[in-house]
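call fold(seq) -> tokens
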Amino acid sequence: MNSMTKAASGVVVGVDAHTDTHDAAVLDDCGRLLATRTFPADAAGYVELLTWAQRFGPVAVTGVESTGSYAAGLVRHLRAQGLEVREVNQPHAHTRRRRGKSDPIDAEMAGRHVLAESSVVIAKDTTGIVESIRQLRVARDGAVKARSAALNTLTGLIVSAPQELRAQLQLRKTTRGQATLCARFRPDRWGLHEPVHAAKAALRSVARRVIDLDAEIAALDAQLKPLVARAAPRATSLLAVSTGHAGTLLVTAGENIQRLTGEASFAALCGASPIPVSTGRTDRHRLNYGGDRDANRALHMIAVCRLRYCQRTRAYAERRTAEGKTKTEIIRCLKRYIAARSTTPSRPTSTPAPLHRRAVRPSPSPAALGRPEPRDGPLDIYRNVPACLCEHER
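ret:
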């Protein structure tokens, strides 16, 4: 990959984003700091920032911190103007010990990271269907956590409730069944000074919270299902790839999958890339504990489910076990292979070719697997998932 200065000439802009303000620094292609300035974090501030930066020359590339949170609006504005945006990490601790910590310094270091091509990646595109999926998933994850907390609270209240209430609730063996009974309680509002009626009121309140959260999660699932099916129809039609798993992988990859340099890049992003731990006569790899842990969990659940229900996967596991591999190592291999085959995109003819450079065997058709042939969606990023779930030999 050529350096930025060779690919395009112009100034480099570094941005340190915050809730209310964005600090920007302009550097020339030799790394000289030209100016720094603070702008409000709103639509007018975005226009003012770009106009100010263009006074020093054409903007070749912009390095921005927090592209998915504080700087999401700025990134959308810059991309709408046809500018290239790179996401950069925070300054290293060594830099902060030498130069100190301030917003203008952080903005300058963001620009220098772009010039040096150190820890920079193309920012995710947040203007498409994948961003819609991400937002709905954030709401659903919050509801799931709140429901778990409510169920735990309900269990604690039942344990400490008066014996007469506990005897009634013992008719149901599950916590959800007990929540249904608790929601029917009718406490005496004038007798709350008595522990029995106070316990009924508390149990009824928490139980209704659980029921409301169940309805909220079901509504979000109904909204997510068509969106994920539209973005990745082939993935959602496969065994072990649910709407949640496909949505997680979509959000991790992003709308603009071309920002990934290859299948190894996506595997590292999911924490599925093997880490060598070889020494002497020992030659082995361990799990990668970095990357997006939600995507790693999705790959893990797909692999575990296939190990249980897919005969080909079980045959692969038996063969690898005979070779001396442990179950953890076998799952690691499956996760890595699933991530490798997940990076083959299906794009319109006007977009670049798939990113991976190594040749892969053609995927078996759904008809050969006994499944209906689904139609391609506009963002069918994971159309070759059938190969990664049914073939495991490199």
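The beta strands are 11-17, 21-27, 33-40, 59-64, 85-88, 120-122, 275-276, 285-286.
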